[in-house]
Design brief:
Elements lengths: L1 E6 L4 H13 L3 E4 L11 H12 L5 E6 L3 H7 L7 E3 L3 H11 L3 E5 L5 H13 L6 H16 L1
Parallel strand pairs: 1-2, 1-3, 3-5, 4-5
Helix pairs in contact: 1-5, 2-3, 4-5
The structure holds D-ribose.
Length: 148
């Protein structure tokens, strides 16, 4: 598995924490910034990560901003992206099993690095269940194909 990861200025600490997790899990990653302490615009980071997932350059994406909300809204504009905003371990597992989410978004002003690490670990290691969920995820893809 290869993962693209990015944050804005509001998510740098959790991004560092998740990079150390990816290294511990021996997961290849592409760190796509940001590289600054000054204020940046989250779409400039969310969209390139989402594009990499959508075009198959990487398997998954992880995005962090202050709330995780802006990153998730932006990422979900890219066709083929199912970005889940997650701040608890139950949802981390459920969104992989049920939604086959391919991008994870978290907010550093919402949760701390320890919980973010556990969420990312579950999200990275939980398999999609398919079955009845595939019908539902398929309906989202159908809509996307018909309206884009
Ligand atoms: C930046 O101030 C903040 O708006 C951003 O990190 C994020 O929370 C947006 O949704």
């Amino acid at each position: 598995m290869k993962v693209a990861i990015a944050s804005d200025h509001g998510g740098i600490n959790i991004r560092k924490e998740i990079i150390s997790l990816l290294e511990e899990l021996n997961i290849e990653y592409d760190d796509m910034g940001c590289e600054c302490d000054t204020s940046v615009d989250y779409p400039d980071y969310a969209l390139p990560v989402a594009e990499k997932v959508a075009n198959g350059e990487v398997d998954r994406g992880i995005l962090i901003c202050g709330t995780g909300i802006g990153m998730s809204i932006a990422a979900n504009k890219v066709k083929g992206i199912r970005c889940a905003l997650v701040h608890d371990m139950f949802s981390a597992q459920a969104t992989r099993e049920h939604n086959d989410s391919n991008v994870l978004s978290m907010g550093e002003r919402v949760i701390g690095p320890g919980l973010a690490r556990e969420i990312a670990k579950i999200w990275l290691t939980t398999e999609y269940q398919g079955g009845r969920h595939a019908t539902r995820v398929g309906k989202i893809s159908e809509y996307e194909n018909e309206h884009n």
